[in-house]
Amino acid sequence: LLLIATGLSACNAQGKRNSQTGSGNASSDFSPDIEIELTAQPVAMQLLDGPKTNVFHYEARLLKGSDSNLSEIQGSYLGPIIRVKHGQKIRVIFKNNLPRESIIHWHGLHIPPEMDGHPMHAVDNGEQYVYEFTVVDRPGTYWFHPHPDKITGPQVYRGLAGLFIIEDERKSLPSGDQDQPLVIQDRSFNSDNQLVYVEGSPMQRMQGFLGNQIFINGKKELTQNVKKGTYRLRILNGSNARIYKLAWSDGSDLKVIATDGGLLEKPLNKPYLILAPGERVEIWKDFSATNSGEEITLESLAFSSGTSMGRMGSGGMMGNMGGGMMGGNASFENGEAMHLYTFNVTGEEGKSLGIPQTLSEIEEIDPVNAVNYDTPKQFHFYHERMNWVINGETFDMEEVADWEKVKLNTTEVWQFINGDDGSGMGMMQDMMQLPHPAHIHGLQFQIIERDISGMDAEVWNSVKDGFINQGWQDTFLLMPGMKVKVVMRFRDFTGKYIYHCHNLEHEDMGMMRNYEVLP
Ligand code: C2O
Ligand code: CU
């Protein structure tokens, strides 16, 4: 507790100084435990057979710390993986060698607004931004990626993303090579092995990018040998817009041990899991009793995403446009079955562990303490005039509406609604309905209600067992017609953070807003 308190005050001081200078400079009175230089730059990589692929990559250099703090994923555009401990002080020097502006967002971390990668802090080619913060979050799987206004989607797609793992102190969980990340992404390549994005395809941009090839941890290899032992799989959906319905090919339940914000209280058994872009989930998998030579596959099952294109529906204009514009090589809707990753069980003995029945303690936020418990703020995510909007608004760098202002040290309930508020455009809005993964920066919240009364029954039936309402989260999927209430506390830092749809094309189109924590 003492550590946390010290960390927070250090963070506060740092955040304030930077907001005055606005430059993200290194400060002499911050002495980091870990210091890393991350340079975002274009490189050509051998990802496929044949020509190299032009990607963007974070080149990492450890300036202070131990080797365990930083690891690259060899042969991958993805990474690095940064491993830290709760309470440590981190300095990251971000250098931008990309052709366009960029900035890094630390997805899921509770840090001051100046450290959070707000698009207003984006730096140009040749410039740098220095992050200094203390790790106050729970152990868990967090991640980082670019966040410049309107061009986050293409930068993440070209390869920029890495993991930020806050390590557990407890010893009863799989470790070493039996604790491993699985970052799931989808990509499309042309015949020259170059990445294909949504440029020139306004309809795919509206839907969000959907690739036709799965990449795991930034590589095309979709199989791996595993020992007879127990694994902890840290799964991140790092895709721009694709939603997965995760399931094991052997029909066993997924044993969920953690969500976005770390370990659950108890393991949770799920027949399948819906994982939207930005979300993390940790799965316990025991291969100890599996026969050598057996293969177990993590699959994505088919589901109904509730995507509706109204009068431009699949049989009409959209369907025809889809094939032509995509050259017939990419799918055009979320929900198709896909093979994700195969574990090939070898004869090698690994470490076997029993699953702990108590994983952690979670302090429940009592929504009754919320200042707006009786009248939760409502956030409508919908389509209007070929734009994705929140309560009718799109992103403005500075703007904060009244309903986006909160007070420090208060608790609030926010209700997110996929659909318009019934006023205004009516039928025009209904023309397009899609799932939206909602993400709030700067904190972890708890889900207190998932109201499905406005959902299509067939859609709900195809996903209903795949949601997790337990634990700490920073991103959740809002299906068409769904209403989700979250409760959160605004603590420690004042200033502007953002919240947005984590379908990165929607985010880039403006489905993002500021919220401001006032003193
Ligand atoms: Cu992972 Cu604002 O995003
Ligand atoms: Cu969206």
TrEMBL record:
InterPro entries, sorted: Cu-oxidase-like_N (IPR011707), Cu-oxidase_C (IPR011706), Cu-oxidase_fam (IPR045087), Cu_oxidase_CS (IPR033138), Cu_oxidase_Cu_BS (IPR002355), Cupredoxin (IPR008972)
GO MF, one example: copper ion binding
This protein's record includes keyword Oxidoreductase: yes
Pfam name, any one: Cu-oxidase_2
Highest taxon, organism lineage: Bacteria
Keywords associated with the record: Metal-binding, Oxidoreductase
Domain (Plastocyanin-like): residue spans on this chain: 63-170, 376-517
PANTHER family referenced in this protein's UniProt entry, alphabetically: BILIRUBIN OXIDASE (PTHR48267:SF1), CUPREDOXIN SUPERFAMILY PROTEIN (PTHR48267)
Record-given protein name: FtsP/CotA-like multicopper oxidase with cupredoxin domain
Taxonomy of the source species: Bacteria, Pseudomonadati, Bacteroidota, Bacteroidia, Marinilabiliales
